[in-house]
Recover the amino acids of this structure.
């Protein structure tokens, strides 16, 4: 009877000792494993093939490696304690389903972020518009894209919505077109007005000579002649050309006693 008690005590003591060893091993795996993951992420960021990629793709790659690495280390640590792998996978599957249902919007943003990384409709530094917001792209993360508006307001846009929206990228092409429409009296000398408008374009150093600027004449529904000044320029010079040409046109028309009945500016990004 005494021998049975001793054996039971030894068994319990041995089990506790084994559990303690497993817990210590799991802690070591966590500490060393998490440290190794951090070092691997640093190496990934410094790798030359990764540095050649776009900034947003670099961030995505580093984040993916970090998440996968942490998940692997945690699973290894839990398995070391003695929890069966099948049980871990079952729990993770159940948790994943619950989290997926609760975070459908976030998952949609994640999927949208991946699509933006792959197809790259825009990049950091581009000026974009989704119909409701427009601004310069400052950051593209897995879930959100951050833009700065013309008046320097920060707007955070969900990637899920951006991936399914019609995005206008105003920096996608190297050059852009600006049309300035002016409507004058029917008595205006059409040839003279066209010459004056072309002169305004030629005096602006940022306006390209190829494609050459054009001055065209159309007629409105009311029978008034509308003169269209069409110019091309580098995309980055848009605002300078926009304000410079508008000022030059208005000044020229005033100096030549041609009162401006109506003015409209049309923006074109296609060549």
């Amino acid at each position: 009877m005494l021998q049975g008690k001793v054996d039971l005590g030894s068994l319990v003591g041995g089990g506790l000792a084994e559990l303690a060893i497993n817990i210590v091993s799991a802690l070591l795996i966590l500490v060393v494993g998490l440290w190794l993951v951090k070092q691997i992420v640093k190496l990934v960021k410094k790798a030359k093939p990764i540095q050649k990629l776009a900034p947003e793709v670099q961030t995505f790659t580093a984040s993916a490696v970090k998440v996968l690495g942490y998940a692997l280390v945690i699973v290894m640590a839990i398995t070391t304690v003695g929890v069966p792998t099948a049980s871990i996978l079952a729990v993770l599957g159940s948790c994943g389903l619950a989290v997926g249902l609760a975070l459908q919007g976030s998952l949609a943003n994640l999927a949208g972020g991946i699509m933006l990384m792959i197809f790259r409709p825009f990049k950091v530094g581009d000026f974009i518009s989704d119909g409701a917001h427009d601004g310069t792209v400052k950051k593209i993360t897995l879930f959100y894209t951050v833009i700065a508006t013309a008046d320097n307001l920060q707007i955070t846009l969900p990637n899920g919505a951006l991936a399914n929206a019609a995005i206008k990228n105003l920096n996608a092409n190297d050059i852009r077109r600006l049309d300035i429409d002016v409507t004058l009296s029917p008595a205006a000398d059409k040839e003279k007005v066209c010459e004056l408008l072309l002169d305004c374009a030629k005096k602006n150093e940022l306006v390209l000579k190829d494609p050459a600027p054009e001055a065209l004449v159309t007629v409105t529904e009311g029978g008034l002649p509308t003169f269209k000044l069409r110019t091309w320029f580098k995309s980055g010079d848009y605002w300078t050309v926009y304000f410079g040409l508008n000022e030059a046109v208005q000044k020229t028309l005033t100096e030549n006693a041609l009162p401006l009945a109506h003015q409209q500016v049309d923006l074109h990004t296609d060549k």
